[in-house]
Amino acid sequence: MTPLGRRLSDVRRSDDSGSALALALVFLMIFGVYIGVVLQFATTGHRTTTAVREEAVNTYAGGGAIDGAVNAVRAATGTGVDPGTATPPAASPCFTLPAGQLGNPSDIAVTCQPRQGSGGDPPAALQSQPAQAILARSTNAAEGVSLTAGPFSAQGRVQVKQGLRLTGSATLSSTGANAAVQAGNCTGATTSPACVTTTSIPGDPGWAAPTEYPAVQRVLPACTAQNRVVTLSPGTYLDGGDLQVALTCATNTGRVIWFKPGTYYFDFRDTTRELQILSAAVVVGGTPLGWTPNTTLPANVPVPSAANPTRSACDLSAQGVQLVFAGDSRMRVLSGGDIQLCAENTSGTAQHVVLRGLAAQTASLPAAQPTTGAATAATTTGTGANWSNPADGPDVDGNVAIATATRNTTTRALRVGPFPAGLVPPEATNIAVTVSLTGGMVGPGATNVRLTNGTTLLTSTPLRTCPAAGCNDTALRTDSVTIAEAGLTAAIANSMYVDVLVSSRDVGTPNGGQTTGAVDGITVSVDFSAPMRPTSGTGVGAPYLPTTQNTTTTPILRTAGPASTTVVALHGTVDAQLAAVDLATTLVPYTVIDRGIAVRHLQSSMTRAAGYTGPLISVPDLPQGPRRVLLLAKDTSSAVLARADVVFANTAGTANGTVPTVTEWSVN
Questions:
Q1: Closest alpha carbon to 576 in 398, 418, 414, 354
Q2: The pTM of the whole model exceeds 0.85
Q3: 291: which residues sit within 8 A by CB, 6+ positions away?
Q4: pLDDT at 204 over 90
């Protein structure tokens, strides 16, 4: 056997157990590595599955929290309304999803942030609606709104630029869709909702004021007891004393004082600055409702009461009045007085102001405004033929004054006047006096008119001239002449006399110069241009102090007395932003001002009657615009899980409501 063969034979006969062990070790090593890798993949997969599951739970719970917040906010129509005091409006908590509700390990909180203007202005057709029930705009830190009794309730916002002060038993609640209490400084007892301190109080609402004098009223109702109503007509009243006489007469004779629909401008220039509604006076301004002028007794004029708090003697839906107080003119309702006023304007686009204090002086009026007064007395003066029955001359009533002048002579003067100091404002310019005479003439001659101050002739002007053939009036006629001389001043117009004289002339025959004149009425009108005075003497530099009542702090409107005998019901807006208003009627079972008040300062000791839960001052609850709200759902670490932009509107989509529309939705 060769050596190679022997070697091969030796190999076949050798033991191979060592090789198997090596192979086994290699296999175990490779398998171990594989198992380790597989186990690592399994662990990683388990951890990934847990994280994905937790993320899914959070995402699901975040979306669920948003959904819950939408359902909560849709029913709470005051949530998500921009208060108008911050830019942008702040977010606040509005819903919480408790831990475990949707598998979430912790609470998920949702905040609601109003978008700018959310729930703001009502539809355009309703924007004449005041934004506040009470707006106090004084710049004096001692003023604002002072309540000394309560409970006091306002339907609508209460916004005070300076201090809101509640003393004694006073409480204040703001109710309705726009409820809010905001002031530069909140002092005193409880308000509901809580008073928010802010400097972002709105400015002048800009409600248009009268721009010219209405015609000046000089003819006031005579003080007689035949009629059951004293009827006042729209216009300008410059003499507070004369107007007060008419009101007092009505009270003493048991008659209703009725302000016919229209604008009344009070700019008292005499010593009487305060128009008083006396005890037992019954005043109605506007279209009568539930009573008939000249028929209904004052005691039968309807008034609001606990049984019928909305009852009114003037028609809220018909033309009413606007009482405008200028200068330091003002009104006071004494205990036992009764005044009910409905606003002049009832449209949906113009403000319904029922009582106003002018906020600024106007420029001179673009056109002259007449003041008319019939002569109230007549005398004769001078030499010449006298007048028969001179007292019959001033009034057009069919009773005439007659005088005859012969052959180049002139009758005595038939004189009316003097006219009172309040006839024309002292700052008036472009003054013109128009004299209208109702009468007749027979014969050749003339009727002359002259103005005097009682002793000195100011001017003389022909009113009517008859030819040589003469006039032969078979019926009375009215002739007018206007005197507009450069020297005609307010002082002259306010103290003038008007004289009427008849003259004859010689026409060559013994009796040809005889002229007879008859007078059945003399009316004097004065035209002028003048600025309207703003509310003044109201102490914008000094705080209103109700205990002093001096000329710098007297309010434009002051009331007092128990509601059982005193009625103050103003159906419209009180706009007196340079003036104070002091309301002290007690135990009131109805709304005193039903369309808001904007003033410099409001002082009130008003109280509500037992059982009456309504507001004392209100604005109608008109719809807000749609709410636009950003919702954010966050976990306890403040991580945002979901967000949504939602609009809450009515079914028409035009106003605030409970119908949600999601404009954006996302989850993180």
A1: 354
A2: no
A3: 256, 284, 300, 301, 302, 313
A4: no
